[in-house]
């Protein structure tokens, strides 16, 4: 039904200078970088970087911290398991209960970035590294804590992935037959270091970006992040093959990606449309709202949308508010990361007759 994706092990020997591997020396497991961390890669603004990411699914303690053995239980041969995932599981420090689950590649210094600037991270290309991954529901978390999982322990749903008749396709085998669904690759975590000496958990997102889990930030999209420390210290992780808005089970189709990203800088002297994270595609502006309370996250997203419309198109606030109510969809990004997320889809074509506030 599907032709499996090609396995992409880490690049050795022939790797370009702009390549960043996800080996233990280049990752933080479960913790976000701070301003005092050593950059594992340095680039000038406007540079492209090829970055490997690995999924936390398969390396975690409740999965045996042994990816080869964990995936063997689902019939994956040892030579189809990523060697960098095996190395991280064996060598990288990780403290259960303190650290989040995610494996973070970085930080990357964008030279010359300063607090008050915006870092624009454009996703140029995302390529799957394996033909499989996992959806998990664990620890009574997710949208139905205490209700799901019904079993005492975590539930891991194995997924296969490959090229199908309609494009990249995910597949879940069931006793009744296969479930197939389209794939949409994206990085759940894209962020910059916080101005804080403490290594925070990778789970909650914030003004630094981080675990935003906005599935629209796929190839062709740009994410704008407010710089908080010198050189920004950007990082990525939490690769997904697919995610429904909400990510209700706790994780979605988690699987590793190779990402080609470009890092641009919008300095304080240039026009910045927001001082909070937001994204943009060819078709949409995507303001992002965040709060531990979902209602407050919705309000934060509406305020961010108004800010974008006022600054970018010089719309009067009351008119922008009316337009959002009539024509803009708001979606729950995720409800599982302590700080919950809402994002909006503002169609740029609706506003094409308006002058830009550049």
From TrEMBL:
Protein origin, superkingdom: Bacteria
GO molecular function: hydrolase activity, acting on carbon-nitrogen (but not peptide) bonds, in linear amides
Pfam families: FmdA_AmdA
Entry protein name: Acetamidase
Organism: Pseudofrankia asymbiotica
């Amino acid at each position: 039904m599907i032709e499996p994706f090609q396995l992409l092990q880490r690049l050795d020997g022939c790797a370009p200078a702009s390549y960043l591997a996800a080996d233990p020396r280049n990752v933080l497991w479960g913790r976000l970088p701070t301003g005092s961390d050593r950059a594992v890669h340095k680039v000038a603004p406007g540079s492209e970087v090829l970055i490997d990411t690995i999924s936390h699914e398969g390396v975690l303690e409740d999965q045996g911290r042994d990816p080869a053995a964990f995936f063997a239980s689902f019939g994956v041969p040892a030579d189809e398991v990523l060697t960098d995932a095996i190395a991280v599981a064996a060598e990288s420090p990780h403290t259960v209960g303190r650290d989040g689950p995610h494996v973070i590649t970085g930080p990357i210094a964008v030279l010359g970035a300063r607090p008050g600037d915006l870092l624009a991270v454009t996703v140029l290309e995302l390529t799957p590294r394996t033909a499989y991954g996992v959806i998990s529901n664990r620890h009574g978390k997710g949208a139905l804590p205490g209700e799901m999982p019904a079993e005492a322990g975590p539930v891991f749903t194995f997924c296969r992935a490959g090229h199908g008749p309609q494009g990249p396709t995910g597949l879940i085998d069931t006793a009744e037959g296969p479930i197939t669904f389209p794939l949409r690759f994206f990085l759940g975590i894209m962020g910059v270091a916080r101005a804080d000496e403490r290594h925070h958990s990778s789970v909650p997102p914030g003004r630094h970006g981080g675990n935003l889990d906005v599935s629209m930030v796929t190839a062709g999209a740009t994410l704008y992040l407010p710089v908080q420390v010198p050189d920004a210290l950007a990082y990525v992780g939490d690769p997904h093959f697919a995610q429904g808005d909400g990510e209700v089970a706790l994780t979605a189709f988690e699987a590793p990606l190779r990402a080609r990203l470009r890092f641009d800088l919008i300095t304080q002297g240039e026009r910045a449309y927001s001082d909070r994270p937001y994204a943009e595609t060819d078709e949409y502006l995507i303001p992002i709202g965040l709060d531990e309370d979902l209602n407050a996250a919705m309000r934060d997203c509406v305020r961010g949308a108004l800010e974008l419309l006022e600054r970018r198109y010089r719309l009067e606030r009351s008119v922008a508010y009316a337009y959002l109510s009539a024509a803009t969809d708001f979606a729950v990004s995720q409800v599982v990361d302590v700080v919950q997320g809402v994002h909006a889809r503002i169609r740029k074509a609706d506003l094409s007759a308006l002058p830009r506030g550049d």
